[in-house]
Amino acid sequence: MSGITFDIAHLLAGSLVLISFMMLYQDRLFALINVFALHAVVLALSVAWQAYIQDAHHLYITAAIALVFKAIVIPVGLHRIIQRLGIHRDIETAVGIGPTMLAGIGLVTLSMVLMLRVTPEADPLAREDLAFALSIILLGLLVMVTRRNAVSQVVGFMSLENGLVLAATGAKGMPLVVEISVAFSILIAFIVIGVFLFRIRERFDTVDVGALDDYRGERR
Amino acid sequence: MSGFSFDAVAAILFIPAGAAAILAAFPNYRMTAIVNMIASLLTLLAALSLFVTDRPAPGQYLIVDDLNIVFIVLNTFVGFTTSVFSASYIAHELETGRLTAPNLRFYHAMYQIMMFGMNLAFVSNNIGLMWVAVELATLTTVLMVGIYRTHEALEAAWKYFILGSVGIALALFGTILVYMAAQPVVGEGTNAMVWSVLIEKAAHFDPALLSVAFIFLLLGYGTKVGLAPLHAWLPDAHAEGPTPISAVLSGLLLNVALYAVLRFKLLLAASPQAIGPGPLMVTMGLTSLIFAAFMLYRRRDIKRLFAYSSIEHMGIIVFAFGMGGPLANFAGLLHMVMHSLTKSAIFFAVGHIAQVKGTQRISEIRGLTESHPGLGWALVIGVVAIAGLPPLGIFMSEFLVVSSTFARHPWLAIPLVLGLLIAFGALLLRLTGLAFGEPRGGMAPVEASYVPMYSHLALVFAAGIYLPGPLVAWFQHVAGILG
Q1: Could B301 and A218 be called an inter-chain contact, meaning their C-beta atoms sit closer than 8 Å?
Q2: Rounded Cα distance, B422 and B93, in Å
Q3: pLDDT tens per residue across span B247-275
Q4: Residue B71 buriedness (CB in 10 A; 0-12 / 13-18 / 19+)
Q5: How far, in Å, CA of B23 to CA of B277, rounded?
Q6: Which of B145, B158, B216 to mutate to test the interface with A (most CBs of A within 10 A)?
Q7: B367 touches B440 (CB < 8 A)
Q8: Of B459, B344, B461, residue with least CA distance to B395
Q9: How many CB atoms lie under 10 A from the CB of residue A87?
Q10: Cβ atoms B225, B260 nearer than 8 A
Q11: Per-residue pLDDT for B88 more than 70?
Q12: How near does any CA of chain A get to the CA of B237, in Å?
């Protein structure tokens, strides 16, 4: 593999990890969603580049899904929902930004050490993609556990899923990638609609998951 | 002959899928409940026909082998009896206005899609397809858990959704890693995801990559099995959804995820240098067992009580399969079947009890054997069975688990027996309050069919007294495959 194709793939995957870090310290919902849209655009570029260098045309479909659905439709939809719900105030992060960033650095180190150690013989590009993908997945999980707001948990889940798509496209010739990305899009659409329905039916006064805990059956 | 037997597999998949389309189209709830039953019965018959017809050669997507037939038959059987129970349960919910006719149309269609997803997960020979099928089954159950649209139901559905999605995401990462491990040996393309190809060549896979993959798969699918500490969704989802769904969650969906774990365990066992899957599964199984056993004491909600009991039993089953070897695998398999039958029977009883008493709080339900003898005694038999008392089937499988543990790792038997005893105490303590004493709560007679409940319990009882020879031989054979 020539140097420049590898470098571009590496650059795009690395940018995804950096953007995941950017999500960790956003304290406003709109900003968080904008960063997520950027994440999805970079993912689309990365997948398209993989499609080009692997000569795998079906991956262009995955790239298009990432671009249209995740970078445009979902962020626009979430913006609308947030406005309708009137929750464009600060995100209450459950953990402070400093410790979160430190935890994020720790997770990225962990995934690098783990994935690079267990894949010494794999194709170097796939290997680094896998390490970056695991970092993105773990950072997505971190976003989910440090936020208490349902919308930002959804954003965390979507960034986690972007990591999975990166891993799947990095694995050369993997079948069913397109099908899986479609399946995930449906899943996410369900989640987003769910958040919307929660409110539209006015069953909850807030989309703060902490408030939902009060309805736990055990406290009756 | 092979053409005919392929039809059996197709029937298992297409009957539920077709029925879902029909059920979504018709608004009449009485008719849809019957159509739901008929479709489930036909699926069961198609599944049974797998025993007698020739099996198709494993394809790139579908497979039928000795292992998954057990799961498919159990799945379709409990699916059918639950549809019978569901018909009477749902009629009552409609009378009390908790559900409306459009809800039911949706409910029945989802029930069949769920059966389709679970059957597809069992027959899939492709680890990617299996993942998609498990996701489909999860999504449909999420929608059904939230069907009452109350605060609690929506919260339970949301929690189940988020935790289930994270589990599913981890499982997908594990699946990708398995593909990465297989790709240098098998070559690119679909073949590197076909289970029957993978198992033949697993010895040549990179052991380190395969080991990491298994850890992700165990955590991912383990979330869906309800293993501690990933079980948080399970009690809420059981308690807040309609009771037929609690029955299929405990009796069937947990098995689907368990089946996925077992398939990957086999893959790992075929690669001598990879980490042993046993110790991981033994640890998670024991943790779940002991944790759930203690949690049983603090429950105030009857459905939550039995949800924790499901965590406990899945812990025992995973422990048994983690131990491995012919005897422990046999015990695990038997325990899985017995648990599915008993736990769904208990949920059938609990569903009717909660309806006549109008509450799920344990403290408000007393003296069931006096006020409703049919239900009360079914609950007594069910709880006695699930607590592991002789002569019922679970006693036998638990006895086999314990004795095989004593034979091979005596130290592990101490926490195992401790967990079993703690859970036993908690269940009997609750049972005496529920079943005996001065009756309390609603006294209205039950309009319910006892057939599904008692047929399950009769099977469990029969299995405890005498297991037919061919069944034992079959289970021994499958236990041998599981290594």
Answers
A1: yes
A2: 35
A3: 999 889 999 999 999 999 999 888 888 88
A4: buried
A5: 42
A6: B158
A7: yes
A8: B461
A9: 18
A10: no
A11: yes
A12: 11
A118: exposed, middle or buried (C-beta count within 10 Å: 0-12, 13-18, 19+)?
Answer: buried
Residues of A in contact with B166 (CB under 8 A): 141, 144, 157, 160
**pLDDT digit string, tens, across residues B418-453:** 999 999 999 998 898 888 888 877 777 777 778 888
* A163-189 average pLDDT score: 83
User: Is the confidence at residue A200, as pLDDT, over 70?
Assistant: no
Residue B126 phi, psi dihedral angles, 5° rounding: -115, 125
- What is the complex's ipTM, to 2 decimals? 0.87
Confidence of residue B119 (pLDDT cuts 50, 70, 90): very high
pTM for the model stands at 0.90
In this prediction, residue B162 carries a pLDDT of 83
Please tell me what DSSP assigns to residue A219: G
Most A CBs within 10 A among B166, B177, B180, hence the mutation to make, goes to B180
What are the tokens at B103?
A: 């809800």
What are A63's two structure tokens? 């790239």
Sort out which chain B residues have CB atoms less than 8 A from A119's CB and list them. 180, 206, 208-209
pLDDT in tens, A49-102: 999 988 888 889 889 988 998 899 999 988 888 887 777 666 666 778 889 999
B138, B113 Cβ separation under 8 angstroms: no
Range of the domain at B336: 276-483
The residue assigned the tokens 């943790």 is B287
Q: Measured between CB atoms, which of A160, A190, A191 is closest to B169?
A: A160
Position A6 scores a pLDDT of: 86
- What pLDDT shows up at residue A219? 41
CB contact under 8 A, A204 and B154: yes
Residue B206 counted as domain residue: no
**Contacts of B312 by beta carbon, 8 Å cutoff, 6+ apart:** B288, B289, B292, B293, B296, B419, B423
Backbone Cα Rg of chain B? 21
Does residue B139 lie in a domain region?
no
Q: Can you give the pLDDT at residue A198?
A: 63
Q: What end-to-end distance do the CA atoms of chain B give, in Å?
A: 31
| Number of domains making up chain B | 1
What does the mean pLDDT of chain B come to? Answer: 88
- Is A187 near chain B, with CB under 8 Å? yes
Tallying the residues shown for chain B, one arrives at 483
The neighbouring-strand residues paired with A147 are A93
For B315-370, the DSSP string reads: HHHHHHHHH-HHHHHHHHHHHHHHHHHHHHHHHHHHHHHHHHHT--BGGG-B-HHH
Chain A closest CA to B190's CA: distance in Å? 5
